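Posting for a labmate who doesn't have an account.
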Amino acid sequence: MVPTVDLTTLPPAAQKLLDPASPAPLRQMAAKGIAPGLKPGDALTVLCLLAQGDDPVAKGAAATLEALPPPLLKGALASPLPSFVLEVLALRYATDAEVMERVLAQPQLLDETVERAASRASEAVAELIATNEERLLRHPAVVEALYMNRATRMSTADRVLELAVRNGKVLHGIPAFEEAAQAIAGELIALPSEEPTPDDLQFQETQAVAEAIELAEGEDTHDPSEETGEEKPKPKVLPLHAMLASLTISQRIRRAMLGTGAERMLLVRDTNKMVALAAIKSPMMQENDIARISTSRSVSDAVLSAIARNKAWVGNHTIKVNLVSNPRTPFVYASKFIGHLRDDELKILMKSKGVPAAVAQLARQTLQRRTKK
């Protein structure tokens, strides 16, 4: 919830500027950051309040906030500011470490404001936010926001995650929290440092390589063999495939959740179950991705089970057919969807040599029952 300001706590001159009945020229001057007689903090508060709305004065104030005069900003931050003003500043300066260092030191700053800033922070600002362990434990959503922010260093994401896990916090805002928490327990955590660690740089280099790979709409990272069905990475993703393989499990889990489509399609096939499940849980995973994955014979039964348990995904008929037709799908799930298949699909399934005998038999029995009716 965005904080508000009790206008009665402001000086009379500030209240006058905020009064819609005040002379327009006076309010327009205040919208430019010019408020004679007011302290910088009060002038900034007036400016932030004037920016709320869609009238000409509000638009002028909003434009001024986008390029605050340095003397006004510096002077305002030298004294305590209302939570509302800090919210405005934190969201506008989330990538400015110099400003955010002073914002983060403000006593009226709300944890919810830090959470919102953390989700859009630059690397340097994320480092500042991560230093306040008391706040991270008091409001774990800040940890979630830092972890899910691509700009946050990998070592910092590991460190704040380990802090939360060690103190018994469950982070629902991290889709693959269970996998990430399990992985972090077996890895050494880097101490805070002024410069990125070698692992941080490797993580960033992997991201750069991933972003340079272009996949066509609906294109997979693997090509299946027509004879055996065995899947192999396409030549253009081999450099990325090698870089991902060199990352730690924790790094692969985070790349699986935050990386590109090519990374997700590679990591969902990872031999490590935690990494593969993190990929399938990525908030960026699309239904067309799931349709392709559900046909893959390189993904684990754990991934196929996760797809089968997702009510939204199995609402797609194609995904149900793919799961039943995939020999790696556990029978408990394949049998559940056979009754949803059409007669022509059942006929293909009962004759298929690529599915377990139990699935083919159940398809035959299902079709026979329908025929008798």
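Reply:
Got it, the structure tokens are right above this. The chain has three domains: 1-109, 197-285, 286-373.
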